[in-house]
Amino acid sequence: MANRLAGEVSPYLLQHANNPVDWYPWGADALARAAREDRPILLSIGYSACHWCHVMERESFENADIARLMNERFVSIKVDREERPDLDQIYQLVVQLMGKSGGWPLTVFLTPDRKPFFGGTYFPPTQRYGMPSFPRVLESVSDAYNARRDDVEAHALELTRAIVQVAGRDADGEGTSARSTTPPSADVPSAPPGRGRYVKADVPLTAALVSRATEKLVARFDEHNGGFGHRPKFPNTMSLDLLLRAGDHARVGHALDAMRNGGIFDQLGGGFHRYSTDERWLVPHFEKMLYDNALLLRLYVDAWRALGDSRYADTARRIAEYVMREMQAPDGGFYSSQDADSEGEEGKYFVWTPRQVETACQGDEEAASAAKRVWGITAQGNFEEGGSTVLSVVEPPRDDRERDTLERARQAMWSEREKRPKPFRDEKILASWNALMAAAMADAGAALDDPSLVVAAERAMSFVERVLVIPDQGGSGRLRVLRMAKDLAARGSGFLDDHAYVADAALDLYDATASARWVALARSIADSILAHFHDPDKAGFFFVADDGEKLVVRSRDPHDHAVPSGVAVACRVLLRLAALVDSKYEAPAAHAVAKLAVAASENPFGMGTVVCLVDRLVRGSVDIALVGKRATDATGALAREVFRTYLPDRTMAWIDPSDPRSLDACRVLAEGKPAQGEPLAYVCRGRTCSLPIMQAEMLRGALKRT
To answer: How far does the chain reach from its first CA to its final CA, in angstroms?
Structure first.
């Protein structure tokens, strides 16, 4: 018999709809029952691609005896963290403030008024891994709640006050960091919260702050294996972005080569897995997340621009091909994730034995031999105990002939793999992640001169505009962004990252297409960010809008996690709009960045995107105005030079003097740049611009000198 999750749209919640647990979704019904019956709340937060979430479900939530204990003693609430990141953001702090590792599945116990008093992550059904059994935890928590209520209430109040101090502090306050420098992930512990300090007033922004941040990144770089830290190892794209910006091409290249050659990259189908369980990038945790592939797509394109190595462009194309093939819905939106498990086993879809390779190659012994040699496929294997191998580049192809042979093997093995039962795909479409991928696709399509990628980005953003963007109340002309859609049904108020990422993607689409409609969309959303998320008194931004659900705290979080900080991306949007269309957008962003600059320079792993904004404000953006009709060959030749050049803080302006919409979309940069017959370009720093440039070769030289 289905429980109360059967009517939900989240695939993760629907996975639990037939559990014997009497699950509730988060909402008034569950909270009212807890208050009415004076029961503690068991809050369980996870997501559909989380391996250990599935393990806990199989072991505990499908166990009739454990479910009975939960049903008798608690009001149990199941939450999809991707649907409600505000809840996850707050209640992850419970575990970390208790000195434990955060992650998913998250298990937190609350009083009926939503104050937390105990928490953890995965609990086994019997005592093991040095952890108490889940039944024992349930009994102990229930007994404490009923027999020692005063102690429980006092502890809940203490924890709640600590959460308010951490998650709700102003940008100029002091206290414990809201997160560690490594974001928590499924079955991956994060460090307990460290100590952090925010400056009490705007500080002068200098290159020294950026240098301090890059020095800290270099100190933690793994010179042997590439990347940062040890096991488990994440791509840490925001940190690599910062090193690339600083000109540390050797370390960035080392990390990108190691990831591309490692098992974290799907050698057959393209795209990256979530993270590596070892320090060598060999054995991944096999889920594929949309946001990881969006961030890595952009990073590999930027590395190609900066280093000129065609392998990075090839890797970017492989990511984009995977996403368009596997993760784009027929109506244009991008799906959220693919599971780590298939047929009840982690990684089964992706690993190979020598016999399976030979079968796939169907008598092509040369191809099978090349695959086994290059990808290290042996009878012993490298994955768990089953003699299976995670594919990685153990020995590169010897020459062009073996490279062609390997491609033959790749295609044969991929065709054979397509016959296997595929991992579950979470087909909800999140505004923020969808926009992150659309932005990367637009940028990659422009850089690689591949219109299909730009079309994919336009389809995704058109879906967002059609389904997830709505008018703000009151006839202001502003636009708001909803959180998610599933089967064309939109749901949930958007958070800061939803608004910021969609606006940022709209500006990237403007860059790639010259369509003024995308600037109009970005401006309308930016106006809503300032109206509903900005705190002008404290020069900061809230994660939840002023008309959002009132939780125990209205959180602020300028940190990067698995995705860039919503605060930082909102500031980037405002700075881009200030350079392009209206200077009024600059001050809120500049003040917010100044408040965070010192903290970001001391913690670049947690605030790398803020450091990039400090660098932008110190050096200024490179503003390029292209004057002429977009569709002409001459204008296209100028644009290609811009798109191929590594300019991390570029602002594009498309000026067609015959089109008033074009002028309105970039009126700051359009001022004083009349048409002169032939298409031409201006390269500007601050408000100082070059003389008009008409030849692509001259523009290339001017861009290199910026």
So the answer is: 66
Pairing of strands 116-120, 688-689: unpaired
- Going by their DSSP bridges, the two strands 622-627 and 650-655 should be labelled as parallel
Q: Is the pLDDT of residue 196 over 50?
A: no
Cβ atoms of 581 and 665 closer than 8 Å: yes
Q: What is the pLDDT of residue 258?
A: 98
CA distance 614 to 602: 13
Q: List pLDDT tens digits, range 391-424.
A: 999 999 999 999 999 999 999 999 999 999 999 9
Which residue from 353, 299, 287 is spatially nearest to 326, judged by alpha carbons? Answer: 287
CA proximity to 291, closest of 456, 21, 498: 498
Specify the pairing of strand 41-46 against strand 75-80: parallel
* Rounded Cα distance, 296 and 429, in Å: 19
* Residue-wise pLDDT tens digits, 98-117: 988 889 999 999 999 999 99
Q: What percentage of the chain carries pLDDT values higher than 70?
A: 95
Name the burial class of residue 385, with classes exposed (0-12), middle (13-18) and buried (19+) by CB atoms within 10 angstroms of its CB: exposed
Q: How far apart are CA 335 and CA 303, in angstroms?
A: 26
Which amino acid is present at 452? S
Q: How far apart are CA 178 and CA 164, in angstroms?
A: 10
- Cα–Cα distance, 366 to 10 (Å, whole number): 46
Give the integer Cα–Cα distance in Å for 206 and 213.
12
Residue type, 472: D
CA distances from 563 to 175, 185, 217, 433, 452 (A): 23, 12, 18, 9, 25
Separation CA 395–CA 403 (nearest Å): 11
Distance CA 272, CA 420 (A): 19
Cα–Cα distance for residue pair 443/506, rounded to 1 Å: 11
By the 8 A CB rule, do 47 and 10 touch? no
Cα(167)–Cα(383) distance, integer angstroms:
40
Rounded to 5°, the CA angle 76-79-83 comes to 160
| DSSP characters over 75-116 | EEEEEETTT-HHHHHHHHHHHHHTTS---BSEEEEE-TTS-E
Pairing between strand 24-25 and 41-46? Answer: unpaired
CA distance 431 to 394: 38
DSSP line for 154-220: HHHHHHHHHHHHHHS--TT-EEE-SS-SS--BBTB--PPP-EEE--SS-----HHHHHHHHHHHHHT
- pTM of this prediction exceeds 0.90: yes
Query: In 3D, which of 560, 546, 534 has the Cα closest to residue 178?
Result: 560
- Please state, in angstroms and rounded to a whole number, the distance separating the CA atoms of residues 407 and 125: 46
